[in-house]
Prior knowledge:
The chain has helices spanning about 10-25, 30-35, 35-45, 50-70, 70-75, 80-95, 105-130, 135-145, 145-165, 165-190, 215, 220-240, 245-250, 255-280, 285-290, 295-305, 310-335, 340-370, 375-390, 405. It is an all-alpha fold. The chain folds into 2 domains: about 1-205, Up-down Bundle (Growth Hormone, Chain: A), CATH 1.20.1250.20; about 210-395, MFS general substrate transporter like domains (Growth Hormone, Chain: A), CATH 1.20.1250. Helix 1 runs parallel beside helix 8 (about 135-145) and helix 12 (about 220-240) packs antiparallel against helix 17 (about 310-335). The longest helix has 29 residues, at about 255-280.
Amino acid sequence: MPAVPAFIRSNPKLAFFALVAVAASGFGQTFFIAIFGGALREEFHLSNSWYGASYSAATLLSAFVLLSAGTLIDRWPLKRVAILGVLLLSAGCITLASAHSAWMLLPGFFLLRFAGQGFMTHMGMTTAGRYFTANRGKVIALAALGFPIAEALLPTGGSLMIAGSGWRSVWLASAAVLIVAVLPTLIWLAGDTGKHDGQSSTENTTSKSDYTRAEVLKDPGFYCLLPAALMTPFVVTAILFHQAAIADERGWSMAVLAGAFGSYAAGHLLALLFAGGQVDRYGAQRSLPLALIPMIGALVLLALCNASWVPYVYLALIGIAQAGTGTAGSALWPERYGSSHLGAIRSVSQAAMVFSTAASPLLLGFLLDRGWDVQGVGLLFAGLILAACLLTLLAPMTAKQNPQESAA
């Protein structure tokens, strides 16, 4: 039997709980739901605008609900939180599978976006950030491996099932996988972990100096760091959602584009192997702006060059940046504010992230419709990311990050 890696040896069950929860969030992520777009529009005779608007509305609503629901992980045993998340996500799958009118898509999309992209991701990343201290970055990177795992399995498997047995069967199968496989696994991995009894068995302990959500919202440094933490999901969602329009303008074939997404996945996966160690060594706040540099390079390359090799390179760079910023961004809040109220604090950043992923495709679509070309869009986004990086320099370290100074 292989040895348990040293960085998760203190509590391997919780480390893999985080990984499974993040992977299960894939059932509510855009990369999976997107494969049903054509079938749903045809089934219910929907225009692209109506379909996109309903999806964005459900995503925005899920962001607001997550602000309250995200605090449950601070107050409930982890097992109960997992049960709630999986059942809601399963309910979203069943709602879509049984939809017989276009209006049924709205509650279905809401449940998928809230429970999947929002709650399950929040639960997994909060667990990784709360119960590990010395190796927090590595454990968060391990949990983040759930994203490329889901990206590799779900769209491909779902597409094959749609072709063979129809789109409704895919959602029913998804609900079955969640209830029969994912739910028992998470219950077993969670064990008896909870707010009061779980922390004693981990590296992390509750501290009276930990920030509450109200205190975080009064910290100017939070608002200096939040834009950098949001830049990757904001830009990636916009770019990937409108990738076909970008490819058309640049003259790239769909075959080239399909191959380029392989480089995106490879860059994401390989960078995760190193991102956690960098965060543990240099700290999340220092690592976050550095992790955004590959994305700036990717967008400048996209803006200034249209050669056939560009999609492979710029998407690989975006994958690298996504791994680095995802790990650093998730480790940032427990590093800066402690973990006693991490669920409440992360619910703010997670809700902001969900909101940004709902807004960015609409923003980019508006710019493209107004006549902006790929060069203008690429340079605009690169400039926004650079500004977010510079803004992080205005955020001083907190007492949690410099305990020796607070003790002086």
